[in-house]
Automatic annotation (TrEMBL), chain A:
Domain Oxidoreductase molybdopterin-binding: 60-150
Residues making up the signal peptide according to the UniProt record: 1-21
SUPFAM superfamilies in the record: Oxidoreductase molybdopterin-binding domain
Protein name as catalogued: Oxidoreductase molybdopterin binding domain-containing protein
Keywords: Signal
UniProtKB/TrEMBL annotation, chain B:
Record-linked PROSITE patterns: CYTC
Start and end residues of each Cytochrome c domain: 197-336
Primary site of residence: periplasm
Cofactor(s) the protein needs: heme
Name of this protein: Cytochrome c peroxidase
Superkingdom of the source species: Bacteria
Sorted UniProt keywords: Heme, Iron, Metal-binding, Oxidoreductase, Periplasm, Peroxidase, Signal
Native source organism of the sequence: Chitinophaga ginsengisegetis
Annotated Gene Ontology cellular component terms: periplasmic space
Record PTM text: Binds 2 heme groups per subunit.
Binding-site residues for heme c 1, renumbered to this chain: 68, 71-72
């Protein structure tokens, strides 16, 4: 009976999670944890980058700079990105379980001119099945292994060791 | 008295104090140290030994009919050679019994990843009516009445009082020791084995993404089954069906993108673990290669890795030649770890 109750409870939790399936959670070392849906992201300041995917051809990707999202969550960027905060990283997770990592300094405009974006469009169209609704695009990176698709979670952490 | 009170409190919190000698885990540095061991269940020699006995203990099933080892047989890399297993009542399970190799690193258990630890995973086959059909609490009562088990639990967990929680903890400890790292492929990676020419060609295809525009042929298996452990901790829809009978991970998450998605399992000992896929639909590795080569079914949740991945420009499947399939299978044979399936430390102690 206990197991049945537990199973019911778990199913309820999963169902509740499913309702937020197409959102991105921003969590960890943040002052304001976020759950962003497509509507939230469309309200943010947009940008466009041109970058080559695995096919080697340049495409126009549009979306939101990752730093814009992190700033909204209160991550230590800009003037605060120094001292111990230099050992923080951003872990991005896909709905398929894949994970990739960026150091905060790699993302911050005080450190680099390269703008890494969370894209929701390519060449003016929504991202194709399997790669959307949100995908990280890293302009200039030779290998697109960090262009993680189906982004569901962005977690900021301290490197512990 | 205070000590007793503290211990009682510990039990109330549901934690079991551990005792015993730490169990040294040995594995190649290339496997990495991102292991999955809960803080409240460190491996001890006593715990692992108890777990091994419990793994093969029929008292954990209703009517003392079967043990975990019935569907996870060592000689088959801890599978049972069946598409669907049958438990105490002869009714087939919903999915194919998974191999138990290198679970130490796995973070999501079952074909749909619904359990985050081996402790949590073990609860299902123990209690499921078509598997072992007995709640761990009932098993604990049965073991409590035996002559040997109270002493073994005391050695492992510091108490003779047997609980369902302690049973799954011991099982999980044993399963974490099931490390396979001595196949010919491992020895090749260490520079101690020279594969034959077919296997070498197969390995090249396995690790290479096809690019017909550059005349590069490949099977791209390594994209998901690469690295020394031969799997990635991801869930993909590998194009078995356009409309899957078993929705896989979607049943857990409710997310449409998860339809037909299942865990990418390790390919270690793959020649021993037929039949293949979550439903055991393929009896041979030839059938598996035929699937990826010629029969990928399109759907909205088909893995992007399998879309437009072909050795023919515009092809919907890999389009491998007969010889290429044979070569890849020759490579897959190198993943069989004979010392893993004969290791006495993993064998049935009741034999």
């Amino acid at each position: 009976m206990l197991y049945k109750l537990t199973a019911c409870l778990l199913i309820t939790i999963f169902a509740a999670t499913a309702a937020f399936a197409q959102t991105i959670s921003v969590e960890g070392e943040v002052t304001h944890p976020l759950k962003l849906g497509a509507a939230d992201i469309s309200k943010m300041q947009r940008t466009e980058v041109t970058a080559a995917d695995r096919d080697g051809k340049p495409h126009r990707y549009s979306g939101v700079p990752v730093t814009t999202i992190l700033q909204q969550a209160g991550v230590t960027l800009g003037a605060q990105l120094k001292g111990e905060n230099m050992s923080k990283y951003l872990l991005v997770k896909s709905g398929d379980g894949y994970e990739v990592l960026f150091s905060l300094a790699e993302l911050d405009s005080a450190f680099t001119d390269r703008v890494i974006i969370l894209a929701d469009q390519v060449d003016g169209q929504p991202l194709p099945d399997g790669k959307g609704p949100f995908r990280i695009v890293v302009p200039g990176e030779k290998k697109p292994a960090r262009w993680i698709w189906e982004v569901t979670t962005m977690t900021v952490r301290f490197a512990k060791d | 008295m205070i000590l007793f009170g503290m211990m009682a409190l510990t039990f109330v919190n549901g934690r079991i104090p551990f005792t015993g000698e730490p169990y040294p885990l040995e594995y190649p540095a290339s496997f990495g140290n991102r292991t999955n061991i809960p803080a409240d269940n460190p491996l001890t020699k006593e715990g692992v030994y108890l777990g091994r006995r419990l793994f093969y203990e029929k008292m954990l099933s209703a009517g003392n009919k079967i043990s975990c080892g019935a569907c996870h047989m060592q000689q088959l890399a801890f599978t049972d050679g069946k598409a669907f297993s049958t438990g105490i009542d002869g009714v087939p399970t919903d999915r194919n019994a998974m191999s138990l190799a290198n679970l130490l690193w796995v973070k999501n258990f079952f074909w749909d990843g619904r359990a985050s630890s081996l402790e949590q995973q073990a609860l299902t086959p123990l209690a499921a009516p078509h598997e072992m059909g007995q709640l761990p609490e009932i098993s604990a009562e049965k073991l409590q009445r035996s002559k040997v088990y109270p002493g073994l639990f005391h050695a492992a967990f510091g108490t003779q009082i047997i609980s369902g929680e302690a049973i799954v903890k011991a099982l999980a400890q044993f399963e974490r020791t099931l490390i396979s790292a001595n196949s010919p492929y491992d020895r090749y990676l260490n520079g101690q084995y020279q594969p034959g020419s077919a296997a070498l060609r197969g390995m090249q295809l396995f690790m290479t993404a096809p690019a017909p525009e550059r005349q590069v042929r490949g099977a791209n298996c390594g994209h998901c089954h690469g690295g020394p452990k031969l799997y990635l901790e991801v869930f993909h829809n590998n194009g078995l069906d356009s409309i899957p009978r078993d929705a896989g991970r979607e049943k857990q998450t409710g997310v449409a993108a998860d339809k037909g998605r299942f865990r990418v399992p390790t390919l270690r000992n793959i020649a021993l673990t037929a039949p293949y896929m979550h439903d055991g639909r393929f009896r041979t590795l030839e059938e598996v290669l035929d699937h990826y080569s010629d029969h990928i079914r399109n759907s909205a949740s088909l893995s992007p890795v399998l879309r437009n991945t072909s050795n023919e420009a515009g092809g919907a499947s890999l389009r491998l030649s007969k010889q290429e399939k044979k070569d890849i299978i020759a490579f897959l044979q190198l993943l069989t770890d004979s010392s893993f399936i004969t290791n006495p430390a993993f064998s049935n102690p009741f034999n």
